[in-house]
Design brief:
Elements lengths: L9 E2 L7 H14 L6 H14 L3 E2 L3 E2 L2 E4 L6 E11 L8 E10 L3 H14 L3 H9 L3 H9 L2 E3 L5 E3 L2 H9 L5 H17 L6 H4 L1 H12 L29 E7 L5 H17 L2 E6 L10 H6 L2 E6 L14 E4 L1 H6 L1 H14 L23 H34 L18 H17 L1 H14 L4 H13 L3 H20 L5 H4 L2 H21 L1 H16 L3 H17 L4 H14 L6 H27 L6 H15 L7 H6 L1 H22 L2 E2 L12 E2 L1 H25 L11 H4 L4 H4 L6
Parallel strand pairs: 1-5, 3-6, 4-6, 9-10, 9-11, 11-12
Antiparallel strand pairs: 2-3, 5-6, 7-8, 13-14
Helix pairs in contact: 1-2, 3-7, 3-10, 6-7, 7-10, 14-15, 14-16, 14-23, 16-17, 16-18, 17-18, 17-20, 18-20, 18-21, 22-23, 22-24, 22-27, 23-24, 24-25, 24-27, 24-28, 27-28
C-alpha cells in the first residue's frame, strides 16, 4: 500500500468557502493521484456521511470522511484555510480540514487512519505545528509521523520530544507533570499514523493491559497541594486509585469515537484517576478485560449509538452523554461520575432478558460456551419475528376464522367493511414475517461467530433451508456453517491490494457459494429428512407421551428462568408454530411452554403476599412487580428470588412448571401465539383448563417455597446479605429472616 498522505494531497492555501467546495477541492487531488475513481460518486458518499452528523470539531477542525466504493486505497488529504470553513462545530469555522477516504468495507483501514489521526488532534502542539508549517511535504510528513526537518536542520519525529520530556521528569508534580504525560501519549499516537492496525490501537491496548495487571499511578498524576495527594494519585501512598471505565461510539464509528477516547484518557491523567476506554468503532471492538470492568469504581458512556453489551457495566455509578461531550468536556464528566460514586448512586443490575449476543465469545472461553453464545445470538434476533408474526397470524385466525389461511391475497380481494378481509390481511402479514424466521436465525448465528461478514452467507443458507424444507434444523446448521466458513476465510493471508474488496465482494461471494453448495448438495437432504421425522413424531404424540413431553418442557422453562435451557425449550416450541398452518401438536407444545414459563414469577409474587415475613423488604417489593411479569410470560421476573435463594426457589419452580406443562398437554390446550401471557387467552384453545393448569402449578410452587423457607434456621438480625435489611425502618423488619 502506498503512503496514506503525500505532498500532492496537501493544500496549505485552501481557497474554498463552503464545506462542499472544500471536500471537492481535496477530493480532486485524490482523483489526480488515482486514489478515487469517480469524483461525483465519492462526493455523494461524503455528503451522505455529513448529513448524519456534522464533522466539525471544537478547536477549528473539520474531518469530512466516508467509506466509498469509489476509493481504491485508504487516503487522507489535508487542507488549511485562512478564512475558515463552517463544518458545524459549536465554536465556529474550521481552518484545518482533513478529508478521509477508505474503500467500502475497509474497516482495518478506517481504524488505522482514524484512530491515530483523531488522537493526534487532541494534542494542541500537533495542531499548532500544522497551522505554522510552510511546506506541503513537511505537513504530510508531520501527519504521517515521519521525521520533519526543523529550522536548525535537526531531525524531529512527531511526539518524540514530548515523550522524552515526560520521561525526563518522572517525579514532576502538579499540572506540569500531567501535561508532560499527555503530550507524550499524544506524541506516541502521532507516530502511529500510517502504521499497521495493531500499532494504531496500541495506546489504548497498552493502557488497558496496564490496568488489568497493575494499580500503579498514572504518569504525571496531579497533586492538589504539597501535602495530600489527589484521589488515586499514587500507589506508594497506600491509596487505591479511583478507576473509571468508559465506552465511546459514534454513528459511523470513525473520528468522534477515537477523539472522545483520547480526550477522556487525557483528562483522566490530569485528574489523577485510572481511566480505560473501550472504543466501539466501525470495525467491531475489543472488550475491556472483565477484571478491569469489575474493579472499576464508575462508568462513562459517551455515545450516539447504543452501547453494545451494556449489561457488563450495570450496578456502577454511570454518566451517560453524547460522544461530543466526551470530546469537549471530559473533565466535567469525570468530576460528575466521581460525585455520583461518592453519593452511592448506581445503575440497577439488569434482571431482564440479556441483550443480543454480538460476538463470537472471549478467547478464554471454551468451545461449548462460545457455541451457546452463537446460538443465542440467532435466537435473540429471531424471537421478535416469531412474536410479531405469530401474534398477527393468531389475530388473523381470531378475526377471520380457522379457514383464513385459505383466503385469497388481499392484493386481489380486500373489503374495508368486511371482518374476513381484515383477518386475511393480518394473517398474510404475519405469514410474511414468519418467512424471515429461519434466515434471520441462520444469519445472526453467523453474525455472532464472524460479525458482519457472516450475515450474507448466513441469510443465504437460511433461505436455502426453507427452499429444501430443512426448516429450523437446517437454519441452525446453515448459520454455523456460514460463520465457520467466514472465520476460515478471514484467517487467510490476503494481499494488500484485495483487502479493500474483501468484506463487500470476496467474502460474500466465496462464503455464499460454499454454504449454498453444502446446503443443496451435501447436508440439506439428510437435515430435511430429520426435520420431517421430528414433525411426524410430534404429530403422533398422544396420551402419556404428550404429558411426559409437557413435563420435560416445563422443567426446562423453569430451570434457569430465561437462560440457555429455557431458551432451548422456547425455541423448540416457537419453531413448531412458525408456519402458516401449524399442527395441533405444535400448538399444544407452545401452550405448555408458555404456561410453565409463567409459573415461577407468579408463584414468587403469591409467596411474598401470603408469607411476607419469609422474605426481605426488597424481595417483597420485587414480588409486586412479579405479578405483572408473570402474567406477561416473562420468566425473568423470578430471577431476583432465585439468585438470593437458588436451592429453594429453583427446585420448587421446576416442580410447579413440570406439573403445569403436563396438565396443559393433558387438557389439550393449544396456542397459536408465541408470547403474550394472559393477554392472549382469547387465542388459546380450552382457555379455562389452561388457566387451571397455570393456577395449579403456581400454588404447588408457592407451597414448596413457603415450606422450604419456613424450615430453615432464622438468619441473624443484622446481616450483610441484603442492604435493605441492614437499616430496617421498624424493629419488626429488623428481626425478619433474610434469604440464605
Amino acid at each position: 500500500m502506498s503512503e496514506m498522505i503525500t505532498a500532492d494531497l496537501v493544500d496549505l492555501d485552501l481557497s474554498a468557502d463552503t464545506k462542499e467546495a472544500a471536500a471537492r477541492a481535496l477530493a480532486e487531488r485524490m482523483v489526480a493521484q488515482g486514489r478515487v475513481t469517480d469524483l461525483e460518486g465519492f462526493l455523494a458518499d461524503v455528503a451522505a456521511r455529513e448529513a448524519q452528523m456534522p464533522t466539525g470539531l471544537d478547536g477549528g477542525i473539520g474531518i469530512p470522511h466516508c467509506r466509498s466504493a469509489h476509493v481504491t486505497e485508504p487516503t487522507l488529504a489535508f487542507g488549511r484555510s485562512a478564512a475558515g470553513i463552517d463544518f458545524g462545530a459549536a465554536d465556529g469555522p474550521a481552518d484545518l480540514i482533513f478529508l478521509i477516504a477508505a474503500p467500502a468495507g475497509a474497516d482495518d483501514a478506517h481504524l488505522t487512519i482514524l484512530s491515530s489521526l483523531a488522537r493526534q488532534l487532541m494534542n494542541t502542539e500537533f495542531t499548532d505545528a500544522l497551522r505554522s508549517v510552510r511546506d506541503a511535504g513537511a505537513a504530510a510528513a508531520l501527519i504521517r509521523g515521519d521525521e520533519v526537518p526543523s529550522e536548525d536542520g535537526a531531525q524531529e519525529t512527531g511526539g518524540s520530544q514530548e515523550a522524552g520530556s515526560a520521561q525526563d521528569a518522572p517525579g514532576a508534580g502538579g499540572s506540569q507533570g500531567a501535561a508532560g504525560a499527555v503530550e507524550g501519549a499524544a506524541g506516541a499516537a502521532a507516530g502511529a499514523v500510517g502504521a499497521p492496525q495493531d500499532t494504531a490501537v496500541a495506546p489504548v491496548a497498552a493502557s488497558a493491559g496496564a490496568a488489568a495487571g497493575s494499580t500503579a499511578p498514572v504518569p504525571g498524576a496531579a497533586v492538589t497541594d504539597g501535602s495530600a495527594p489527589a484521589p488515586g494519585a499514587t500507589a506508594a501512598s497506600g491509596a487505591t486509585p479511583f478507576r473509571i471505565v468508559a465506552v465511546t461510539s459514534c454513528p459511523t464509528g470513525i473520528a468522534h469515537t477515537y477523539m472522545a477516547a483520547e480526550s477522556l484518557e487525557n483528562a483522566g491523567r490530569e485528574a489523577g484517576v485510572e481511566l480505560f476506554v473501550e472504543t466501539q468503532g466501525s470495525a467491531g471492538f475489543t472488550r475491556l478485560d472483565p477484571a478491569v470492568v469489575a474493579a472499576a469504581d464508575a462508568v462513562i458512556f459517551a455515545h450516539d449509538v447504543p452501547v453494545r453489551d451494556k449489561d457488563r457495566f450495570a450496578g456502577k455509578p454511570t454518566v451517560d452523554v453524547g460522544v461530543k461531550a466526551g470530546i469537549n468536556r471530559p473533565a466535567e464528566l469525570i468530576a460528575e461520575v466521581r460525585e455520583k460514586a461518592a453519593r452511592g448512586e448506581a445503575t440497577a443490575p439488569a434482571h431482564g432478558p440479556a441483550t443480543p449476543v454480538e460476538r463470537a465469545g472471549d478467547s478464554t472461553e471454551g468451545y461449548g460456551t462460545k457455541l451457546r453464545k452463537w446460538l443465542m445470538s440467532g435466537v435473540s434476533y429471531m424471537v421478535p419475528f416469531v412474536a410479531a408474526g405469530g401474534l398477527l397470524i393468531a389475530l388473523g385466525f381470531a378475526i377471520g376464522g380457522y379457514k383464513i389461511n385459505k383466503a385469497p391475497s388481499v392484493m386481489d380481494h380486500f373489503l374495508w367493511t368486511q371482518a374476513d378481509s381484515w383477518g386475511a390481511l393480518l394473517f398474510q402479514i404475519g405469514a410474511v414475517a414468519f418467512g424471515f424466521l429461519v434466515p434471520v436465525l441462520a444469519g445472526y448465528i453467523a453474525y455472532g461467530m464472524a460479525d458482519r461478514p457472516g450475515l450474507v452467507p448466513g441469510f443465504v443458507g437460511g433461505a436455502i433451508s426453507l427452499t429444501i424444507n430443512a426448516g429450523f434444523l437446517g437454519g441452525l446448521a446453515a448459520g454455523l456453517i456460514a460463520g465457520g466458513v467466514v472465520m476460515a476465510i478471514q484467517r487467510l493471508n490476503i494481499p494488500a491490494a484485495l483487502r479493500g474488496i474483501m468484506p463487500v465482494v470476496v467474502i460474500p461471494l466465496i462464503s455464499s457459494a460454499i454454504v449454498g453448495f453444502l446446503m443443496f448438495v451435501v447436508i440439506g437432504k439428510p437435515i430435511a429428512s430429520a426435520q420431517k421425522g421430528l414433525t411426524d413424531w410430534l404429530n403422533g404424540l398422544t396420551g402419556t407421551n404428550a404429558i411426559l413431553l409437557g413435563a420435560l418442557l416445563g422443567l426446562m422453562m423453569c430451570f434457569d428462568l430465561g437462560g440457555p435451557v429455557n431458551k432451548v425449550a422456547y425455541t423448540f416450541a416457537t419453531a413448531g408454530i412458525a408456519v402458516s398452518n401449524p399442527s395441533d401438536s405444535a400448538m399444544k407444545i407452545m401452550a405448555a411452554v408458555m404456561a410453565a414459563g409463567m409459573v415461577p414469577p407468579l408463584a414468587m409474587a403469591l409467596a411474598t403476599t401470603v408469607r411476607g415475613k419469609l422474605f426481605t423488604p426488597t424481595e417483597r417489593e420485587n414480588g409486586k412487580a412479579a405479578w405483572v411479569l408473570g402474567a406477561s410470560f416473562i420468566s425473568e421476573g423470578a430471577i431476583p428470588f432465585a439468585a438470593a435463594d437458588p436451592l429453594r426457589v429453583i427446585p420448587s419452580s421446576m416442580v410447579g412448571g413440570a406439573l403445569t406443562g403436563a396438565l396443559s398437554m393433558g387438557f389439550g390446550a393449544t396456542l397459536r401465539a408465541p408470547h403474550g401471557g394472559i393477554f392472549v387467552v382469547p387465542l388459546i384453545g380450552n382457555p379455562f383448563l389452561y388457566l387451571v393448569a397455570i393456577a395449579v402449578g403456581v400454588c404447588v410452587t408457592t407451597a414448596l417455597v413457603v415450606l422450604l423457607k419456613g424450615m430453615r434456621k432464622p438468619a441473624p438480625e443484622s446481616t450483610a446479605t441484603d442492604p435493605a435489611a441492614q437499616q430496617p425502618t421498624t424493629p419488626k423488619e429488623a428481626k425478619q429472616p433474610v434469604a440464605a
